[in-house]
Inverse folding.
């Protein structure tokens, strides 16, 4: 019979290596404006689903979509510029 402790020791033996690297943290930091813009879009969509959408809700969703597109564009341009490609 195997005890859970032996399985846990095998799983947590590499716990020090599970932490994100500096490069991964930098990538997350670079993508944060896109994530935040997508959260705002999701919030606008949830608000519109909660009631009958009106013109203000439609405008809010449209602006949030534009922010997401702009954030994705900026991220793509920043990524291609650092990779040496043409934007």
């Amino acid at each position: 019979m195997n005890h859970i402790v032996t399985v846990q020791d095998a799983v947590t033996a590499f716990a020090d290596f599970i932490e994100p690297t500096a490069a991964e943290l930098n990538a997350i930091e670079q993508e944060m404006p896109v994530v935040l813009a997508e959260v705002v879009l999701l919030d606008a969509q949830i608000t519109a689903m909660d009631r009958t959408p009106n013109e203000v809700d439609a405008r809010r969703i449209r602006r949030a979509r534009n922010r997401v597109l702009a954030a994705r564009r900026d991220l793509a341009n920043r990524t291609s510029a650092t990779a040496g490609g043409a934007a």
Remarks:
- The mean pLDDT is 84.
